[in-house]
């Protein structure tokens, strides 16, 4: 353990206290520019955090602003607790009691001094543990990056962006995880999605936690995004199927829709099951939602078809479920008026080039995502464009009705469809192999498509 590099002066304790109070007073009154002029080592983002923090409640203690090594050394010097500091930086912060034994070997202990309050050895130990995992460095890079605060592109006000995302067995516990919740919220916000269908919702309450975060953010990057993009933030609402649609990995599965209630109006919803006494046509029942986009009516049916598996019999079930979707299309064509548009979206567990989808193509439906675009994260990272003729795992998709593709009335597909395959990783989410952080909220990528309204 390194020796303390600071030489303490013998100032009167009352004099030190007076100087501390003067510094606290400065940070409570100074503008961001004044803070940067006096302490340029802070940088704009930290200075802004200090100003924002005191707007919620006045700063009461000096340690509220000395979590950075450079500013801590300068503040200690100003109040007279450091007369000279020419030695290398210590491995741990200055402490008034004997330091605890190092938790790691000498080769694994971080060299940087922890940025925690003076004299808090438990915080020092925690910092050293987190530092060794790489979490501190990745978090600093994440919060200082500008990507998370920027909108992905410019979307006209007359265009609605709709999406689908399999959230990989989202539960309340997962939604409470700050990394998972922030990754989901930022993805939706950055890509300016107006309405999104979720599959593999194990607990509908988890979706409400996402809604609450979107409307009243408490997580740091969601709060920053909302502050930097106030006109694009909107208000949010969600609803889930009132009964389970099936099972996933022995857990109950529900389907949900989350939408911007200031742009989209939800009218009704229902779970589409088999008739009484008949065999279930789907392993997981489709969930239908009816919406108003401006004056146009759109019916979205969210599906999660059975995964083919390794056995031929399981693959046959998936193919059969696609055929049952064709029956659903026939039923909608027979019952819906000509001015109502519809789309089937979700996790099909089957590439759109499969012959099974000929039943939909023959009825005029077309996929928004081509088969060359992988939607499973592992396949995306291996080969984003499906080069080399390998399987692309294009499972998540949207099948559009003929009126949306032709753009004859009301709504029309603009041709813009995207697999979101960047910005999904979050430094607080562990990787599946537990070898580090920077994991994903789901093994699926969200996909979105744009509809232009001509009303």
Q: What key phrases describe this protein's structure?
A:
455 residues; 6-stranded mixed β-sheet
Extended strand count: 15
Low-confidence stretches: 1-11, 81-114
Instruction: Could you tell me the CATH topology label of the largest domain.
Output: Deoxyribonuclease I, Chain A
Q: Helical element count? A: 15
Structural class: alpha+beta
Radius of gyration: 27 Å
Biggest sheet character: 7 strands, mixed
| Secondary-structure arrangement, i.e. CATH architecture of the largest domain | 4-Layer Sandwich
Domains counted in the coordinates: how many?
2
Written account of the structure:
This protein has 455 residues and is of the alpha+beta class. The protein folds into two domains: 13-144, no CATH class; 156-453, Deoxyribonuclease I, Chain A. The chain is built from 15 helices and 15 strands. The chain has helices at 13-29, 32-38, 44-56, 69-78, 121-133, 135-144, 172-176, 178-190, 204-215, 220-228, 230-233, 312-335, 358-361, 377-382, 402-406, and strands at residues 159-170, 195-201, 236-240, 246-248, 251-260, 264-271, 287-293, 296-304, 340-347, 366-367, 396-400, 411-419, 426-430, 437-439, 447-453. The strands form three sheets. Strands 1, 2, 3, 4, 5, 12 and 15 form a seven-stranded mixed β-sheet that branches. Strands 6-7-8-9-11-10 form a six-stranded mixed β-sheet. A hairpin with a 6-residue loop joins strand 13 and strand 14. It is elongated, with a radius of gyration of 27 Å.
Secondary-structure map:
Elements: H1 13-29, H2 32-38, H3 44-56, H4 69-78, H5 121-133, H6 135-144, E1 159-170, H7 172-176, H8 178-190, E2 195-201, H9 204-215, H10 220-228, H11 230-233, E3 236-240, E4 246-248, E5 251-260, E6 264-271, E7 287-293, E8 296-304, H12 312-335, E9 340-347, H13 358-361, E10 366-367, H14 377-382, E11 396-400, H15 402-406, E12 411-419, E13 426-430, E14 437-439, E15 447-453
Parallel strand pairs: 1-2, 8-9
Antiparallel strand pairs: 1-15, 2-5, 3-5, 4-5, 6-7, 7-8, 9-11, 10-11, 12-15, 13-14
Helix pairs in contact: 2-3, 8-9
């Amino acid at each position: 353990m390194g020796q303390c590099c600071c030489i303490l002066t013998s100032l009167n304790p009352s004099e030190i206290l007076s100087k501390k109070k003067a510094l606290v007073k400065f940070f409570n009154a100074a503008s961001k520019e004044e803070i940067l002029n006096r302490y340029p080592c802070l940088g704009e983002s930290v200075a802004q955090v200090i100003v924002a923090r005191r707007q919620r409640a006045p700063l009461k203690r000096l340690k509220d602003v000395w979590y950075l090594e450079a500013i801590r050394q300068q503040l200690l010097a100003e109040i007279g607790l450091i007369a000279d500091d020419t030695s290398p930086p210590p491995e741990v912060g200055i402490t008034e009691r004997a330091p605890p034994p190092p938790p790691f070997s000498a080769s694994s202990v971080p060299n940087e001094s922890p940025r925690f309050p003076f004299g808090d050895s438990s915080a020092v130990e925690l910092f050293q543990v987190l530092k060794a995992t790489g979490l501190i460095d990745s978090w600093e890079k994440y919060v200082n990056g500008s990507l998370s605060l920027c909108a992905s592109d410019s979307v006209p006000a007359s265009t609605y962006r709709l999406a689908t995302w399999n959230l990989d067995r989202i539960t309340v516990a997962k939604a409470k995880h700050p990394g998972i919740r922030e990754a989901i919220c930022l993805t939706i916000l950055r890509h300016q999605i107006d309405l999104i269908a979720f599959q593999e919702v194990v607990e509908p309450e988890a979706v409400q936690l996402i809604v609450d975060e979107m409307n009243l953010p408490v997580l740091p990057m969601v709060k920053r995004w909302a502050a930097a993009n106030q006109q694009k933030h909107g208000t949010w609402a969600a609803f889930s199927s009132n009964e389970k649609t099936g099972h996933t990995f022995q857990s109950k599965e529900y389907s949900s829709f989350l939408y911007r209630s200031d742009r989209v109006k939800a009218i009704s919803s229902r779970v589409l099951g088999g008739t009484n006494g008949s065999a279930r046509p789907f392993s997981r029942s489709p969930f239908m939602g009816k919406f108003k986009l401006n004056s146009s009516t759109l019916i979205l049916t969210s599906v999660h078809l059975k995964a083919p598996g390794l056995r031929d019999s399981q693959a046959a079930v998936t193919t059969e479920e696609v055929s049952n979707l064709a029956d659903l299309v026939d039923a909608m064509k027979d019952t819906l008026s000509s001015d109502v548009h519809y789309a089937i979206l979700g996790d099909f567990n089957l590439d759109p080039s499969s012959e099974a989808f000929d039943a939909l193509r023959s009825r005029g439906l077309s996929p928004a995502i081509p088969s060359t675009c992988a939607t499973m994260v592992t396949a995306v990272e291996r080969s984003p464009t499906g080069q080399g003729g390998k399987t692309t795992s294009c499972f998540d998709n949207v099948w559009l009705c003929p009126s949306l593709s032709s753009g004859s009335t009301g709504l029309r597909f603009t041709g813009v469809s995207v697999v979101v395959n960047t910005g999904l990783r979050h430094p607080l989410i562990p990787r599946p192999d537990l070898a580090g952080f920077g994991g994903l909220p789901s093994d699926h990528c969200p996909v979105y498509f744009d509809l232009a309204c001509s009303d």
